[in-house]
Amino acid sequence: MSLARACSPILTAAAFFACTSADPTEIDVQMTLDAETCSIDEPGVIRLDCGGMVGVWLRDEATGATLGQACANLPEGETLDKLTTEHLAGVDLATTSNDAVRVEVAVYGGWTDADGCLPPAELPAEGAPQIIMSGSSEPVTFADSDGRLDVALGCEPGNIATPAEIGACENVCIQNRGQCNSFDAFNACIDEETACLIPMCLNQACADNCNENDLDCLFDCVEPKCGAMCLANVFFPCLDAASTALCERQFDTCLFGCEGNTSCETECAMDAETCRMRPCQDAFDECSGDCHMHMKCASIDTGA
Asked: Per the domain annotation, does 67 fall within a domain?
């Protein structure tokens, strides 16, 4: 990326000519990370997790007026080493000013150039993007320049998730998965069916011979027709709602095909447990994904 002094106002990447031979025709703009605020100086390990925008502005030092600008959208998952190699590689800004100017650069999360190619100072008070990093050069005039201008990009506190933060979030996901009871939904449906069967479906003469806490005895006293109604209208709809019905039906089908083979039945039971655990694993995968993608708009991923 470079800025140039031109004899007429232009904002293109064409060849630039100085108004006097003594003035430099072009200043090369170099960007670096501020290791102190970013905790790292390698842009390749900072990933944009929610998509965003990078902008560069040429500002008049005295008035703050924007003399030139360029913004480029950044896709979700982009690493910030691509800023200079791809997104800003062809950007050249030109000015006719003889006064001191400075270059500002900012990376926003959750913002696109359609929302406005705005420098940080001009962002709205409400609905503003997350500023991932930003920086400004020292003021320079073309006459005093040595042909190079440095912009140190500082990371905004709290807007980049660190490996420690992501690890703490994933530990919560792991704990939740450990506490996820694969039979919770199934047992809840059993309870609903039991509430339907007892006492509504009991043969009372039979039930009088049972202890009120002896469910096995009471279940033996259920009227078949009424029991089938509870099964069809309460238990199976409950399983369907809990997304576990498929597991139970697959288990029954598997057992039927075993024809009493113990080894086969054991395999069916293992497959059924894996199936019942799927909601817990799915919840873990979603939780873990959120740790990376939705905690903040950017994260540090060292690959460790």
From this structure: yes
